[in-house]
Amino acid sequence: MTLQRMDNVAIVVDDLDAAVAFFTELGMELEGKAQIEGLYADRTVGLDGVRSDIAMMRTPDGHSKLELTKYHTPAVSDAEPRNPPPNTLGLHRVMFAVDDIDDTITRLRAHGAELLGEVAQYENTFRLCNLRGPAGIIVALAERIG
Fold first, then answer.
1. Beta strand 65-73 pairing with 9-12
2. What is the DSSP string of 77-102?
């Protein structure tokens, strides 16, 4: 038996509409929304009384997806610290390749994104940066140069 593909990365957010707007501005496409609840949801995630809304976002090439999840019940557990530094154990970041890193940063700032450091250049191949996005997640951007 072999792995077929990585299907998606799930991100729990507190404002689903704002997260959809952020990732739409980045260039992702809303594939669909659904309300998730019931015994299968409880069994799948290991919580009782799950009721959530999800939005499935996909990259323009159709190969990568983010599942944005807003839990209504049970209550969301807030991680400490709220905005962990990049060297915190666990999921580090989600990186996207972009055509114009400066334009992308400008557009995402209108949706609350904050640059964590600065745009840096790696040799003569990439311009890179990390932004703090919805729900405190780190979104990295990479622009190929040269």
1. parallel
2. PPPSSSS--TTSSS---EEEE-S-HH
CB atoms within 10 A of CB 68: 28
pTM of the model: 0.89
Which has the closest alpha carbon to 113: 93, 87, 90, 127?
A: 93
CB 140, CB 96: distance < 8 Å: yes
Q: Which amino acid is at 124?
A: N
End-to-end CA, the chain? 40
Give residue 65's identity as a one-letter amino acid code: K
- Compute the distance between CA of residue 60 and CA of residue 112 in angstroms, rounded to an integer: 23
The pLDDT tens digits for 9-58 are 999 999 999 999 999 999 999 999 999 999 988 898 888 999 999 999 99
Where in the chain does DSSP place strands (E)?
9-12, 29-37, 51-58, 65-73, 94-97, 114-115, 120-122, 126-132, 138-144
**CA pair distance 141, 69, nearest whole angstrom:** 22
